[in-house]
Write a structure and sequence with these properties.
The protein is 64% helix and 0% strand. α3 runs antiparallel to α4. It folds into two domains: 163 residues, Serine Threonine Protein Phosphatase 5, Tetratricopeptide repeat, CATH 1.25.40.10; 99 residues, no CATH class. The longest helix has 18 residues. The protein is mostly helical.
Length: 274
Amino acid sequence: MELKKLILNACITLTLIFGVVGYTKSEDTVSTPDLDIEALESKAEAGDVIAMRDLGMAYLFGNTVFQDGLKAELWLLQAAEKNEVASQAALGYLYEEGLGVSKNMQAAIKWYGKACEQDHPAAESRLGFILKSGEGGKKDYKRAVKLLSRAAAWGDAFAQANLGDMYEKGLGTQKDYSLAATWYSAAAAQNHTQAQLRLAYLHENGLGLKKDLVRAYMWNAIAGVWEVVGEDELPANDPRRRLKKVMSEKDIMEAEILATDWWIDHFQSDEPVQ
């Protein structure tokens, strides 16, 4: 578990710094080099903004030093106030999660918003979700759609799945099952579990896609790959139980083969994205 946590932190660190793929809560195998903390401190104290950022990130995720939310806040705040975009996004994450500091959604919204002004995909993804869910105290579906669309276009699976949900339910936009399927498909290809389940549902019911029980079973099997697949051992609410009652053994076998082939082609991490 500690190794997985370190890998996750490394992924988020790279995402917050470069802001290209967005924050997806994935655990792809990415490593960051050990940092020369003393050198960073000297540069940061001398006013080097990048050193402030890197030092803040080190304390935020415990890279080379013990994780310390207060020190992370200290250095990230100085860099963020100098308009360093990755530090602004990281501050949003610090306050959203309450990592060593008091959880403060309003502060998270503020700093994510600052990073969004500079088109930072990770910040757009997180702020879009906050506005969609109302975790900050107020929902704003229209702005959420706008932010999630921008992050989704960068390939952020978390944003893609949330955008698919908004099109499926007609939140902040017209209901559009076809667009929902498009964004669920994009997130599903990156192993986003919930997107895979929703894509299966659309296939099962012919919503925005041609009705296809084989594909529906396939996506449910992919999403539930960590569960044993014997019928008697499937969870009671597993959609595969329902599908097995209306599918032939041949179609079920085809779906399971497709799911296995998909995993061989797409296996990237030891756990699915949530």
